[in-house]
Design goal:
mainly alpha; about 190 residues; about 0% strand; 10 helices
Length: about 190
Amino acid sequence: MLQTDSELIIKAQKGDALAFEELIYRYDKNVLSLVFKYVRDPDEAKDLYQDVFLRVYRGLKNFEHRSEFSTWLFRIATNVCLTYKSRHKKRMMVSFYDKPEDEHEENIFESTIADTGLTPDKKLEDIETDSKIQSALDNLSPKQKMSFVLKHYEGYKIREIAEIMDCKEGTIKKYLFDAVQKLRLELAAIYN
């Protein structure tokens, strides 16, 4: 029988390594997807992913079940991404021509740029458009970018994003509004 997150957390808090592994297994792909969409660099995403679960491991003993585990986990992931961004103010670009070093990275790329049966010209056009969109996203403030990624890439509701980012819904709406305005300006040439 499938155990709930709460049951696994209680066991993990008592030192059950298998329960902690099950928690990680339930959410690891979502966390990796989130951090990859934020940093767009497979190596950096793997480092941040490890940092997230290290913090979860260290902090799990203090988890008090006041929120869903997933909300707490994604709050940690968000904070790790925002901290990373503030430390690395350089532009982060992914070369679509670089070969991934391992199978896990390859799966990320496959899901990101899956073969759609497009012509080479159309693929090149799509890659250039994606690069421009990513560049525009990188020019957003870290909190605007995280709000945008959580809303438009991960499908979270504003209420959930506010809980994950530990701020008011109005603040998230402002981040999203400003992000969309900036993206419209930067991407006007593509869509006009």
